Amino acid sequence: MGISFSRHMKSLLIYIRASALLVLIFIMFSFLSCLLPDEPVRKNIERSVQYLEGISEYPEPIISGRKHSLDYYMDGLIMNMIYSIDNEEPFKSAMSGRSRQQGGPYTTQIDQLKYSIENKNLAPNVEYARYWHGNTFFFRFFFMFMDYNELKWFIYMITSLLLVVFTIVLYQNTGGLRTLGMISGLLMVNIYLMQFSMQLSPVLIIGIVACFILNRRFRKRPETVPFVFFFAGAFVSYFDLLTAPLLTLGLPMLLWIGLETKRSDHSILHSLKKLVQFGSLWSVAYAGIWGVKWLLTWPFIGYDIFKDVKAQVLLRASAVDNSRISAVATNFNQLPLVVINLILIVLLILVIFRFNRRGIKQSVLYLAVAVLPFIWYLATANHSVYHFWYTYRNLGITVSGVFLAFISLITFRKAEAG
After folding, report:
1. Number of domains observed in the structure of the chain
2. To pair with 339 at 20 to 30 A between CA atoms, which of 50, 110, 126, 356?
3. Can you give the three-state secondary structure of 69-134, one letter per residue?
């Protein structure tokens, strides 16, 4: 009993130290970004306006439908916050998420960016302090030497290379069929749109990089795998604007199931407990790092950050039209259900005729992960309804999880089974 308590206390201290180190890293990174010379950054943002003028805030450039739209509203706001950073006030700029906004009737964020450029000598008048805004500070480095059009291409190139390497890693470790199952889930939520967005791309990058690290940790030091989920939760809390953060939890979980069940004979209960542990660590890091931001921000802004956070939490967690199920339905209906159902019918037929009893454990674990987005939607109903065109991408892990669950129940030749 004493040994167990001592071990738990040691683990707790390690995570506390890790949290403190991460907070310090995030503060220093934000601070250093704000120290970059303002002039080249602002010139490239000024050049960027020409690519956004006269375009809808939510353009549908390739396929019609809101779920296929880009989000120039948030990218415009991010550029406004980058433009409004003052390297003579680096710490306040790092903490406050400031921008210049024109009052009066609603206008687009592109117009607001133009207003900010035209009035750059005025002090920022809007603070968006409840987020860390890591994407703002990250992409500010790139605006030192490229404009928005060039940046979108660069994000696309980096994320494409990551997806290619991710596919190779999956194939090497889980086999071709499971690789198809996992990648298909991402395709079904239009992952390509995340590859052109300052707002959305960090989640995709963090999720894939977490999988790379998990794969290496699992092979070299499997006892350190829980830290991967802790760090993933912390980093997505720093970078994300509440878009599809569960991808950074679900993708590593799905990969871990494929690795763990292939190399061990642990019971389903043992593996489920591990998944709960991973989810708990991710959640604590995600919420804890976010909460620290509010504490750090409080002395530097002109309003009660805790009152603002409380109001937003109550709003975004509230039911819509007295129903939380509407959040689930709205997001679920964004999926290409006809295509998914056809694939599932084929897989079901294969399960009936080539049933693999040994895959039941894997199947249960995959389905457990697939449920996570529904819990998220029920907990954040208001936000998930009104921002469905990006929150539905959390369902990528649901589709992948269900496909992998069926694949696990099919007997294939050894060479194909991975």
Report:
1. 1
2. 356
3. CCCHHHHHHHHHHHHHCCCCCHHHHHHHCEECCCCCCCCCHHHHHHHHHHCCCCCCCEECCCCCCH
Residue 348 lies in a domain: no
Q: How far apart are CA 180 and CA 274, in angstroms?
A: 25
Interacting residues of 85 by C-beta distance below 8 A, sequence separation 6+: 33, 34, 38, 41, 93, 98, 136, 140
- What does the pLDDT average to over 99-103? 92
Q: What mean pLDDT is predicted for residues 96-111?
A: 90
Burial of 71 (0-12, 13-18, 19+ CB in 10 A): buried
Both structure tokens of 195: 């590859």
CA dihedral for 237, 242, 247, 250, sign (positive or negative): positive
9 vs 287 pLDDT, higher one: 287
Would 350 be classed as within a structural domain? Answer: no
Q: How high is the pLDDT of residue 417? A: 43
Q: Are 392 and 243 in contact (CB under 8 A)?
A: no
Separation of alpha carbons 297 and 152, rounded Å: 30
Question: Which amino acid, residue 333?
Answer: N
**Closest by Cα among 306, 303, 280, 279 to 293:** 306
Place of tokens 């912390």: 234
Q: Is residue 317 part of a domain?
A: no
| Residue 89 belongs to a domain | yes
Kindly state the tokens that stand for 227.
């830290």
Place of tokens 């395709």: 187
Provide the domain limits for residue 93. Answer: 1-298
